[in-house]
């Protein structure tokens, strides 16, 4: 696949249009078209305060500036739930090293026990690891998560409406939701390490809300067989759908391949993706779409090396085992052969 330096002209959608009936109808149509044609779009008018946007980048930088031993006190290797810090080069996409460091924060819950813990994905439920040296990190991340969950719910219901479904169709699947936040630092490219910040992939869940440090680039989206740049717009979120939406619409909506590439001379960058996902035991059957949309449904993409499971939790545990084999080896070695082939 070739690479181009041309920036992708992603659609820009204004969520505040949902605040009045006329604007809501226009937004719903724009949302469906943007997702069917691109799988990605910029979102403005989302109501996330500028001050909170600045604070989330600032606290992320303070975390990554901590001495390495402080960060490694919450190393992901200590968590059977795949939560915590991953050092540079500590995560993989399709077997290749991702050149980034990050911390994963999920829903704060007690581990499952008894019969509830029988499923492979049950280990994903549990507490986070928080940095003792930076107590404000938890406060701001929980505020950020709450703000983005509100945005995600509005988008989810608008999507369902745009596809001719009941707006409350997925309420039970998302009660409770299973959000995941990754706070990521991509280091400056020295030319001596791989330029793969994160390798080409599709998100396995429902929807992603990405906030990128203003003025920093690196995200590339696959469009018509080429990799094209998708630079951030100040104050905007970058939104994309995951594979569960592709399954539910039988391929009318497509999860889009994307990656992050670090270029020499551009410095490091902070990125904060928020993944809004359902219960781990949720399944997404095919929806009955209006005839004009169903006629454009081309079926779910197939990849023998990355099959899509009907139950959301199986997709997540597959991804975690492959991305963090060291964690799986320590805590769940029985899953390695099952999901790593």
From TrEMBL:
One of its GO terms (molecular function) is oxidoreductase activity. InterPro entries: DIOX_N, IPNS-like_FE2OG_OXY, IPNS-like_sf, Iron_ascorbate_oxido_reductase, Oxoglu/Fe-dep_dioxygenase_dom. It holds the Pfam family DIOX_N. One of its GO terms (biological process) is antibiotic biosynthetic process. Pathway: Antibiotic biosynthesis. Residues 176-278 form the Fe2OG dioxygenase domain. Coiled coil: none annotated. The keyword Cell membrane does not apply. It comes from the Bacteria. PANTHER family: 2-OXOGLUTARATE (2OG) AND FE(II)-DEPENDENT OXYGENASE SUPERFAMILY PROTEIN-RELATED. Belongs to the iron/ascorbate-dependent oxidoreductase family. This is Isopenicillin N synthase family oxygenase. It comes from Epidermidibacterium keratini.
